[in-house]
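Q: Okay, next protein. This is Putative DNA primase/helicase from Candidatus Hakubella thermalkaliphila. I've checked the sequence twice, so it should be correct. Can you predict the 3D structure?
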Amino acid sequence: MSSSNYNTPLEKVLSKLQKVKKTGGVYTARCPAHQDKNPSLSISASSNGTVLLKCFAGCRVEDIVAALGLEMRDLFPDTKEVSLYPLVKGFTPLRPCSEGISLEKLAETKGLRVLQLKSLGCSTIHRNDVPAVRIPYADQYGEIVAVRFRLSLDGERRFTWRRGDHPLLYGLGRLKEIRTAGWVLLVEGESDCWTGWSYQLPLLGLPGKTIWHKEWASYFEGLEVYLWQEPDAPDLTERITPDIPNLRIIEAPEGIKDISEAHLQDLDVVKLIEDLRAKARPAAEILREREAVNLTDLRRRAADVLNSKKPLALVVRAIRGQGYGGNIRPPLLIYLAATSRLLAMRPGAMPVHVALIGQPGAGKNYAISIVLLSLPEEGYHIIDAGSPRVLIYDDVALRHRVLVFGEADSLPAGEDNPAASAVRNLLQDHHLHYDVTVRDPETGNFTVHKVRKEGPTVLITTATRRLGAQLDSRLFSLEVPDDQSQIRSALQGQAMLELHGTEESSEALPAYQALLQVSAPWDVVVPFAEELAEAIGRSPAASRILRDYARLLSLIKAVAVLNHRCRIYGLVRDVYRASVTGASNAVRQAIQTVVELKARGCERITITVVAAELSISKMAASGRIRTALRGGWLVNGEYRKGYPFDLDIGEPLPDEEGLPKPSALTPVNQEHFPIPRNIPSEQGCKGVKPLTNGYKDTSFIEDLPPDDGENLTDLREVVI
């Protein structure tokens, strides 16, 4: 088929790929630029028809295009004017540069001699007939281990790395001279290094304003280390300081962004650096000042929560204020689970991972989205359904974050599926880790690349059915109610939303969570854990009770961190009971309905009959009945495939009381309250500041039904 037979660039690209599969508006296929057994190439089109390519094994777009036998212009629609790429999460396509940059032009712009740059190994090359500057990177032994290309003078896509190369510090071959000097100045980029070296200054270059690897700190042992802080890169100090405690900051003077600008302004660069070194401040001191300012601002914005006697009541009001009319427990428990991301993970501890189970349209995703409004942006990360490989290759930090992954039951089954394995590892070890096989671009040999993301990370996901045993045993599964009364409540909420609109989102709740996150990890002790374990251990439960007990404690700790003082029992009981036994309230109602129908002499009990009795949809009833069949609590007397069920009563339901009542625990005194150990004071992170005035109140949120008059008074007062 000739190129004229293709209607769009996307069709042309897809026709040359193998194992093409469409999920939503995104295609996946085997990447032609490396030996790809499991499709790792994502393909989509922008609004103007431009093809967007992303290989999650790290292959560059140019290499992918070349392997397909195409040119870069084949990715674009046939038009004289190509618009800028839209911002598409996870995609970083290259846009052809019409002019490029030569070594001579770059030297002229920076006020440097071409001969100097050539002596450093720099040269002009051509990429797709466009000039670019080749910049070799050497290690501390002088061996060239990476190559970076400068594509233009300005713009977001100024640089790219040679395929397979990884960022490293620029100028490592000069470490001997730097150690002789006894100090080093870190600057951003190669051109500042070239300028500084022309003045015989001991400089090393960072490959970007956001790039730092802690292993680089070993190069600076025994040295005075300074960082030139450019105005547009304030976060760099926070990235480097934990690894170089003696780091000192040189703040760029007004009107001088970097050393290159000082050189172009014909300033005495050596004297300027000497003066700035003398004025340099310890990075730790600057960070403490920033933290104090940030804490003051967060306390101001979170004042409504800090001054409240019922913080969770504010969460409920915020949820209702956004038009949520369904059962309040799912979003409220998601909020508690999200808070468990802040806990210290001592040996045996576990954060609270949650799967919301329900039929399509039950409001699972809506419940999650409402909760996210009460979290700061740095507190969560969303990966849409249909993008499982992003779990592995996404470069977003996940420490003390909630990972929201849509429709976990859409993950392909099997031990060899990398995304499913990554999820299992996350649920088991509280952080994302997975080993992937990649091909070395130089040798052609395959090596193992270890993907590691620091945690703890909490997984919140959705599903239309209980997940497989490997995943289901590692999280709490919470059924989203879908009976007639819940549907009416949800519709009523939508009606109120139509009539009155949503309440303006309060900044207090996300500011409060941000305030808690600043001081994470929270080391919380539950002094009555032994009594609780003893009480739970007296009741028969599934074999997974040991694993669930650690998550139960994390829910209690989350409440302690939030400073809520009562009724964790009422919140946790239902989800704990359903998770341990597999029998939620909805499943129990369906089983009880079958029992009652049998007692009334009903000859054949089908899913349709149960749905009519419960006034729910056939789909909703089917989910509950199938759960009961898997548990053995109901049996199907109809063995012919495709025929309506003939339901009968099976094994007795497990004990409904998953948790002991609060009154069953030994009464405790002040010393038994859950105690967070690291509350920040007004002065910083030292001292203790009460978040409440000590008011004792055993009432709870008005929206929640009473639990037979039981209050967990053991948790009435959280000592902070």
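A: Here is a summary of the prediction. The CA atoms of residues 189 and 207 lie 5 Å apart. The chain has five domains: 3-75, 103-161, 172-289, 305-579+658-715, 583-649.
Q: Noted. On to the next one.
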